[in-house]
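thread: overnight batch results

M.L. [08:02]
morning all. the overnight job finished for the chain we discussed friday. pasting input first so we're all looking at the same thing
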Amino acid sequence: MIKLLVVHGPNLNLLGQRQKDIYGDKSLIFINEKIKEEALKKDVLLDIFQSNSEGKMIDFIQEKKVESSGMIINPGGYSHTSVALYDALLAYEKPVIEVHLSNPLKRETFREPLLTAKACCGVILGFGWRSYIVGLHEVIELMRKARKNG
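M.L. [08:03]
and the structure it wrote out:
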């Protein structure tokens, strides 16, 4: 069985309560349940984490590197600004898919640089909570290929 990290960044704990026109009306609890349901079908264990703190996100990624095989991450606003999180994703050295509920490329120009995405295998944008499900399928495929080749 493979273990996957799911890392939610800042303000995602407020999903369903803030800017529903952009992020939808589903809570983080709902999203986590949907990811768990899909992972169970794929025989994948999940370690789910959310933090509003960049340092705590980095600590979690570093602490879980050895025991996990891949990651889905929604860095939230840190995707545009965090060199430190980018470096942590590079150091993780396993498949990572970045997901976003909205499409930041269609929003304010300051959201256009997706710095952390450059450390990821791929990015899923703009499909609401379903972005996580697509990301889950893709990272599972990448993890299985890595295990087969490693």
